[in-house]
Amino acid sequence: MVLSLSGRVKLEVRRLRRSTRDAGLAVRCQMILHAAKGRTMQAIADALGCSRSWVVRVVSRFREHGVLGLMDRREDNGTRKVDEDFLARLYEVVAGQPSDYGYARPTWTRELLVAVMAQLTGVRVHVGTMSRALKQIGARRGRPRPTVRCPWPKCKKNRRLQALRSLAAKPKRGEVVVYADEVDVHLNPKIGLDWMNRGQQKEVVTPGQNQKRYLAGALDATTGRLTCVEGTKKNSSLFVVLLRALVDAYPKARRIHVILDNYRIHHSQMTAVALAHFGQRIRLQFLPPYCPNDNRIERVWQDLHAEVTRNHQCKSINDLMDEVWAYLRYRNRGMNIKTKRLAA
Fold it and tell me: Is the full-model pTM beyond 0.85?
């Protein structure tokens, strides 16, 4: 299939290729210019990295309609199916579950999304189009986070959380508010995502026999100051040592409010005796059950795992704890605060 073009037509095609922002149109112009040089359809396809059938269709349309045959004809397809309303409804559907729409399957598939959107909007799209629509709304395939629902009534839970947030936002004069929690540190490393070269998989050497240490920490709600203690067991003794460390860390505080979860060591008899010993200086403020996201120190522990314990290469628990404490000191150094290493 040979094209014979006049100099005027060649110039028009070249100008169109240079001026257009449509990559597809630019490629179609190149096909015509190659064909005008007498190259075969297969040679053009190999040069441009496309299929021979596409080259044949483009050249045929050009022979029939001239330069107008190079234009994208999809603008005549009618109203777009995937418009803003379709994407907004798709966003709502993905946020829910198939059971919300009468399907027993617990997870979404693209085919199921196509069927549900057809029922809701009357618009049926191809599975490939659904993939592009999901990309447009920023949807991704991820691993859901397991959680336990709070047994409290929603109104009671919200009232309690709002009271604790107000307490942390505006402490009274002479009072301090901290968020407290414990974290496990394992010698067997937590395995996390990492960048790797294609065809390679990094290895994380594990010591085999696991060992554990525990940290109890308190995060100042105002300054971000972190007070931590270390222990070999996560028990009431570890928590009492943390309370003693808070008293020493805030010698001028009239009262220290400790916001924390309902773990059993926070309610133990040893803890009650320690609180009585400290008088009114420490007051425990309990979160509603199963509300870890409202304990701000949880983010500190997440950062600790990301910076130190995940995929670590330490051979002994002492080496690992040295790195843990180095990170905690580095974190507090940014606020010109010292963290003391205390043993329970």
Answer: no
User: 193, exposed or middle or buried, with CB in 10 Å at 0-12, 13-18, 19+?
Assistant: exposed
- Produce one character per residue of 153-166: b if its CB has 16 or more CB atoms within 10 Å, e if not: eeeebeebeeebee
Band of pLDDT at residue 53, cut at 50, 70 and 90: very high
Neighbours of 97 (CB within 10 A): 13
- Chain segment 125-146, per-residue pLDDT in tens: 999 999 999 999 999 988 888 8
DSSP line for 272-323: HHHHHHTTTSEEEEEPPTT-GGG-THHHHHHHHIIIIIBT---SSHHHHHHH
Query: Rounded to an integer, what distance in angstroms lies between the CA atom of residue 238 and that of residue 243?
Result: 9
- Reference 214, options 181, 192, 190; nearest CA is 181
For residues 277-286, average pLDDT: 93
The C-alpha atoms of residue 183 and residue 299 are separated, in whole angstroms, by 11
> Which amino acid type is present at position 141?
R
Give me the amino acid identity at 91. Y
Q: How far apart are CA 92 and CA 267, in angstroms?
A: 42
In three-state secondary structure terms, 175 is strand
Cβ neighbours of residue 257 closer than 8 Å, sequence gap 6 or more: 167, 171, 175, 176, 177, 178, 283, 285
- Mark residue 336 as left, alpha or beta (left: phi above 0; alpha: psi -120 to 50; beta: remaining): left
DSSP-assigned letter for residue 187: S
What is residue 78's DSSP assignment? -
d(CA 124, CA 48): 34
Tokens of 66: 């001239």
